[in-house]
Structure formats: structure tokens, C-alpha cells
Amino acid sequence: MTPEHTAERLEALEIRLMEQEAALDALTRGQLDLTRAVEALTDRLQRLERQVRELTPPDTGAAAAEPPPPHY
């Protein structure tokens, strides 16, 4: 190998490394965005579940003791 060929190969490898680092950074940013979105959705779901529990009357078992409606 000539020194010029070695320098060309080294430059090509450095370029590939830079491209891979840029791609990895983009993937990392995407992953962070998705993680934040999942956390936000999880928080929202928990709030909605809490609201539904507050609006839903507790099951006291009284419904089972009531006789069926007259059309039965």
C-alpha cells in the first residue's frame, strides 16, 4: 500500500465514522423524544384513570340485593 492509498482509506473510514456518529445521535434524540412521549401519555392515562375512579360510584353490593325489574 502506498501512503496515498493509506491516507485515502483513513479519510474514508473517518467519514464513515462521522456519518455513523451522526446517525447514532439522531437515533438517540428520537429515542429520547419517544421516551418523553410515553412518559407524558402514561401521566395522562393515570390522571384519566383517577378521574374515572372518582366519577364511578363504589360497588357496595346493594345492586345484587335489589329485586329484578318487573318486566322479568
Task: Detail the topology: elements first, then pairings.
Elements: H1 3-55, H2 62-65
Describe what you observe in this structure.
This protein is an all-alpha fold and 72 residues long. It is 79% helix and 0% strand. It contains two helices and no strands. It has helices spanning 3-55, 62-65. The protein is rod-shaped, with a radius of gyration of 31 Å. The model has no long low-confidence stretch (mean pLDDT 91).
Poorly predicted residue ranges: none
Tally of DSSP helical segments: 2
Distance from N terminus to C terminus (CA atoms, Å) equals 95 Å
SSE string: HH
Shape: rod-shaped
Largest sheet: none
**Averaged pLDDT:** 91
The rounded Rg comes to 31 Å
- Strand-pairing-aware structural class: mainly alpha
Give the tally of β-strands: 0
Helical percentage: over 70%
How much strand content do the residues show?
A: under 5%
Quick structural overview:
The protein is an all-alpha fold. The protein is 79% helix and 0% strand.
Supply database-style keywords:
single chain; 72 residues; mainly alpha
